[in-house]
Amino acid sequence: MSTRYDLYQPGSSWLHRLDPRCKLLLAVCCSLVLMCWNNLWGVLGVLALLQMALVSARITRRRLASVWKAMLPTMLLIALLWLLLYPGRPPLLVSFWFVRISWASLAQALTIALRLVALALALFLWLFTTDQTALVRGLVALGLPYAAGLTLAMALRYLPTMAGALRMVSDAQQARALDLRSRNPLVRARRYVPIIVAMLITAVRTAENLSRALESRAYGSSPQRTNLRELAYRRVDWAWTLGTLLVTAAALWARYGL
């Protein structure tokens, strides 16, 4: 399978060299700050920092654009629903029927929408720069059973693979004159049947090949596993861990203490 559908992008940047546990802590702390802060400028600041970190790690613009493109419909829907369901207070920018939009409600809608893409970037900060082997070893080092860590890593690995397979199957069926542009949802659902059948067959074949690959590598034959490269926290990892915890504590204190 082409690396086009793989989340991990190989590289040697400062973010790639960080310990996977440190990057996971960074993603969790960013998510915690984003969930606790309800300020537009705070969310924009975290979003800008995440974007600059990914750019400095030489993550391609195409991958970053794919995240924004995937989150854009949800962002627009949530912002629109917020403006419609939570009327603003005077002074109003727009007042029509039950729609009442003020600067405060507009800022709140933008905060909720941008928070989603910031949470996604915090997660992809970890996934884009951590390969599958290091991801599993990091989770196991944190106390997660190896089987659970391997299952999670394979799920993250094969989700983009199956998305690529879905695109190929859909394009192949449309090349055979399958029309998926019907506005009737029932008709459109029926026309997706051949695509669903092909995807089920692809999923079964992938699962069978994966099970054979694990069996050929004697997976589960020994209760104790060894690794060629053991994870070790370096000084830079400890510095990033300490800095992340201090910044997170300061942000939470500013949110709830001031």
Explain what this protein looks like in three dimensions.
The chain has helices spanning 14-17, 20-36, 40-56, 61-85, 103-127, 132-141, 146-175, 185-191, 193-216, 235-256; strands at residues 92-96, 99-102. The protein is mostly helical and 258 residues long. It has 2 domains: 1-130 and 230-258, no CATH class; 150-227, no CATH class. Strands 1-2 form a two-stranded antiparallel ribbon. 16% of the residues are buried. The mean pLDDT is 85.
Radius of gyration: 23 Å
Number of domains: 2
Uncertain spans: none
**What is the subunit arrangement here?**
single chain
Average pLDDT value? 85
Largest sheet: 2 strands, antiparallel
Q: What percent of residues adopt helix (DSSP H or I)? A: over 70%
SSE run? HHHHEEHHHHHH
Spatial strand order of the main sheet: 1-2
Instruction: Please tally the helical runs, counting DSSP H or I stretches of 4 or more residues.
Output: 10
Structural class: mainly alpha
Strand count: 2
Into which percentage range does the β-strand content fall?
A: under 5%
Give the end-to-end Cα distance, rounded to a whole number of Å.
Answer: 52 Å
Global morphology: flat
Give the SSE map.
Blueprint: H1 14-17, H2 20-36, H3 40-56, H4 61-85, E1 92-96, E2 99-102, H5 103-127, H6 132-141, H7 146-175, H8 185-191, H9 193-216, H10 235-256
Antiparallel strand pairs: 1-2
Helix pairs in contact: 2-5, 2-10, 3-5, 4-5, 6-7, 7-9
